[in-house]
Write a structure and sequence with these properties.
Elements lengths: L1 E2 L2 E2 L2 E4 L6 E5 L8 H4 L3 H6 L3 E5 L16 H14 L6 E6 L1 H12 L4 E7 L6 H18 L2 H10 L2 H15 L3 H4 L8 H5 L5 E6 L18 E6 L6 H4 L1 H14 L3
Helix pairs in contact: 3-4, 6-7
Length: 255
Amino acid sequence: MTVNGLRTNVQLVPAGGTETVVFLHGMGTDSLASFYLTLAPPVAAAGIDVISYDLRGHGKTERPVRGYTLDDFVADLDDLLKQLGVDRPVHLVGNSFGGTLAYSYAVAQPARVRSIVCIESEPATEVWAGKMSEILAYTVKFLQVEESFDWIEANFSAHHRRLARMAAERITSTKMAEEVPLGPLLTWEQVAAIGCPVLSILGSQGYQADDLEALTSVLPHGELHVFEGQGHSVLVEQHREVRELVLRWIERHAA
C-alpha cells in the first residue's frame, strides 16, 4: 500500500472478530516478521483481527533518506488505519520503539486507541531521548567497524550477522539515528493524561532496570509485568508467556 506517501509492506490477518490489534515492531534489525513469528498467528486464531506492517525505513517498506521523527511514524499509522477503514478503537502492541510509537499515537489520537501493550518500551520523554541518542550513536559507531560483524556471528549466528548488516545499511543511508531522538517529545503531564489501559512488559535487566515502576506509577490505568533476569529481548525469549499476557489483556479490555 501507499501509506502517507511511502510504499508500505502491510500484512492483514482478518479473523472476523470485534477487536483489532495493530503490531508495531522495533527499530534497526526489526520488522513485522518478529510478530509474525511470535504473536500474530495465535492472536488471529483467537478471533482477533491483526494488522502488522513494516515501519518506514524497515523491512520491505520504502526507505526515504529523511522523515524519521515520531510525527512521521504517527502519521503513517493514522493514514494506514484510515485507508483500511478501521473505525473502531484498536489495541496497540508495540515492541521497543514500537511501544514508544504507541504512546505517541495515543496522545495524538486518544479516541482511536482501546488499549496499549508495550514490551520493553517507554514514551518519548526527555529521558527516553537521552537513552536513544546514546544507543544510536554507539550503534552507528559499532556498525562502521568490520570486525563488529565477525563478533556478532561468533557470539550469535550468521543470521544475526545478516540482520546487523541490514541494520547498518538502514542507519547509515538515512537520517534515522539523528531524527528519531528529536521526538516530538512528550511531557510527563501528557503521559499521565493517557486514558486507555496500558500493560508494560519489562525485563528486570532491560532498558528500564533503573526504575521498573517509574512509568506505570504515572499512568492512570497502567499495569506492570516483569520477567526476572530478562534483558531487552523479552519478545523473542519469552514469546509464549507474552502471548498469554496479550490474549488475556485483550479479553479484559475488549469493547
